[in-house]
Amino acid sequence: MSASPEFREPEKYALDRPAVVRRIYHVLIGVCMLLGLADVADLIWHVYHKHGVYDVEYLPNFYGFYGLLGCIFLVLSAKQLRKIVMRDEDYYDDDVD
Amino acid sequence: MMWTDLPPGLILLLGGVLAAVLPHHGRKVLMLVLPFVGFWQLIDVPNGDHAVMNLFGAELVGSRIDSLSLVWGYIFYIAALIAGIFHLHVRDRMQDVAALTYMGSALGAIFAGDLISLFIYWELTAVTSVFLIFANRTNASFRAGIRYLIVQIASGVLLLGGLIIHWRGTGSVEFGNIGLDAPGGVLIFLGFGIKAAFPLLHNWLQDSYPQATVTGTVFLSSFTTKMAIYTLARGFPGQEELIWIGAAMTAFPIFYAVIENDLRKVLAYSLNNQLGYMVVGVGIGTDLALNGAAAHAFTHILYKGLLFMSMGAVLYRVGTIKGSELGGLYKSMPWTAGFCMVGAASISAFPLFSGFISKSLIITAAAEEGYWFVWLILLFASAGVFHHSGIKIPYFAFFAWPHQAQKTCKEAPFNMLLAMAIAAAFCIGLGVFPSYLYAILPYQTDFVPYTGSHVVTQLQLLLFSALAFAWLMRTGLYPPELRSTVLDFDWVYRRALHRVWRATVEWGTETSGALTGGMRGWVNTVIGVAGRLGSPGGLVSQTSKPGTGVLWLTAMLGLYLLVFGL
């Protein structure tokens, strides 16, 4: 490959500071709460006219909870899957040059 | 006349043949100019069947231009141009020729109006594209290429078998709506299914694409599988089995994508997942769903190409694409990181990005047709694809804070950045102005993607998925990237069958000796018994009374008469 990578101490960027990362996390939580509240508001005042095919879609923040639990299930079960299907990097000896 | 009857695939195919003798710059000019020529032909030539000829009573249609094939034709030429720009710096005749002939074959297949032409192009895509894998010139890529070739050729053999049965059964080789119940339908379906990476037939994809060259994977990711989706949409629309096959395709690869360390392999798994949406769309088969499959193929080629380009740029600059060894690259490659995030937002179907305006057609169709279980799987897979393609890919390549020994390198070369910029512009442009894409879809549509309901619910799904990622990361529950091999179905033919074969040979060597001895024993026994029976004083040759012998003879004659009389 063209330029060989070098190891050196890179410059410090804002994202290198734990406080900034924590701030991003908190903003994300805040946005999620607002999105969840939007559904509650829609139930009462019909803010954005939610329409769906199935009844379950009208539960407040159904999509949010489904995504949250779906992803946690996905990651934790994939972690268990590792126990069955993970091998050494050179498991297939014909992959090695 | 000549122009109208020129099968579209031949423009790039003949260009590829020409490239075999041209010098470097000539080859690059071809790669940049021919996509425009081909695109112009599609706009210029009227819809209908062209290049029709009769061969042994079979009507061959070299160029069928209609609303379905045009969607794929347009996007294939756009992809050819973008990948050509990305590939501009590569000085390798083998890859240039392979890429041009491969893209030409895929375009030929899209516009083939009969099964015989389709079969020829189908096999050509296999034997041309494998050189993009061989071109890495490593032992691993050579072996992966051979495995790829075996699977691809097997797909062609199934298609050929199905086509012969279909031809004999119906007297026609026209490539229209075939259906599983037609003669040869199942074989043709399986042939298409291999290239569309149906579950258990999928593993050639994840096995070979990460072994191709930096630019080769970008070519590969755009054509073969989407060509297969087109053939399914043409030959098996509304085939209900496809709904379930597609739903399985969206769900199972995402588990692998979470734990895979090779980031190009993660993208191969998410490519498999995206094909699942298109297969579901074809299976539902309503106007809305088929529009969704076509639109999703269109947007998918762009954002998946963009993601493969960004990972290719990282591999080109850093020399590895393993998540366990990357991180913090947004400092060295800010543009590549930015383009990668546009691709990530598009595949995750964020509002204002291209995936949103195509995927929602399919999910809406699934819900409206009452497939509630499939709808739930598609929603789960949507959250999952955001999780691994939307977050994991950019995070582990470009951020992954904190990371020991972050690598620093140069930003990607200009031609790579330009190609990524064009793809990113398409991703945002289609997301903001979906009507341009909707206008070229096979069926009239009045679908409105940007309703308050669509936007809010999609943002809920995605941002809460992001929250899950952030929470799992901060609590340390998220599995770290590990140097590893993750076993998938290819283990069956790379190891299990191999072991069965070796054990059979060993067992056979041991037992063949015993068997030979055993057979000889049996033969000796039969000879011995017969000899004893026939010998003087034996049961057969006893001469008790002549009448007994006659009786036996009569009984046997009677038996003969009975048998033959019946």
Give an overview in words:
The complex is a heterodimer of chains A (97) and B (566). With 97 residues, chain A is mainly alpha-helical. Chain A has one domain. Chain A contains two helices and two strands, in the order E-H-H-E. Chain A is flat and about 65 Å long. The two termini of chain A are 17 Å apart. Chain B is mainly alpha-helical. Chain B has a domain of 267 residues. In chain B, 71% of the residues lie in helices and 4% in strands. Chain B is built from 20 helices and four strands. Chain B has a two-stranded antiparallel ribbon with strand order 1-2. In chain B, a hairpin with a 2-residue loop joins strand 1 and strand 2. The radius of gyration of chain B is 30 Å and the shape is globular. Chain B starts with 8 loop residues before the first helix and ends with a helix. At the A-B interface, strand 1, helix 1, helix 2 and strand 2 of A face helix 6, helix 10, helix 12, helix 15 and strand 3 of B.
Which key phrases capture this entry?
heterodimer, A: 97 residues, mainly alpha, 2 helices, 54% helix, B: 566 residues, two-stranded antiparallel ribbon, 20 helices, 4 strands, 4% strand
Chart the SSEs and their pairings.
The complex is a heterodimer of chains A (97) and B (566).
Chain A: E1 6-7, H1 18-45, H2 62-85, E2 86-87
Chain B: H1 9-19, H2 24-44, E1 48-55, E2 58-65, H3 67-86, H4 93-111, H5 115-134, H6 139-170, H7 185-195, H8 203-208, H9 216-235, H10 241-259, H11 263-284, H12 287-318, H13 334-347, H14 354-368, H15 372-399, E3 407-408, H16 414-432, H17 435-438, H18 452-474, E4 485-486, H19 490-534, H20 546-565
Antiparallel strand pairs in B: 1-2
Helix pairs in contact in B: 1-2, 1-4, 2-3, 2-4, 3-4, 3-9, 3-12, 3-16, 4-5, 4-9, 5-6, 5-9, 6-7, 7-9, 9-11, 9-12, 10-11, 10-15, 11-12, 11-14, 11-15, 12-13, 12-14, 12-16, 13-15, 13-16, 14-15, 14-16, 15-18
